[in-house]
Amino acid sequence: MRGDAFRLPFRNEQFDYAICSLFTHHFKDDKVVEILEELSRVATRGIFVIDLHRHPVAYYFFTTVARLFLHNRLIREDGALSILRSFTPVELSTLAVSANLTDVSVTRRFPYRLVLAASPPNGAGSAGILPASSGGFTLDSVEPDNPGKVTFNESRQDACAPSDSLRANERN
To answer: 108: which residues sit within 8 A by CB, 6+ positions away?
Structure first.
């Protein structure tokens, strides 16, 4: 089957769950929100998005190992670029809130992966089956007058990404 992430070839609420893996970091934030909205359109119970965690250790480890073992320049540069374009837990949670998802939870998984679990608006169930105690963020509140302002309960201190990340620069 072939499809478009922005117009999935499925009926509304055709599936219990929709899953997207290692894909969203290739898009700008507004397009990620559109993808999340489309995933929530076809899912009744929840969505899961697995993607890279932008973290300095992941970036420097990959670039060091890639220089030593990967002889293809395209693979080395693409891998490093993907890490720089990836997300922090707060960024991914904020995008989910912008897509009007509920029960938003982002957890960290080995090796430097993030898993977003959320329910579609008016979803029948809670997708948040990944406990925040495993090193994640859970949505605490959204201000009704300012939906862009989101508060999170942080279960572990998150390390910042390299300051020259492409995702941060594209917002300017």
So the answer is: 53, 89, 114, 115, 134, 135, 136, 156
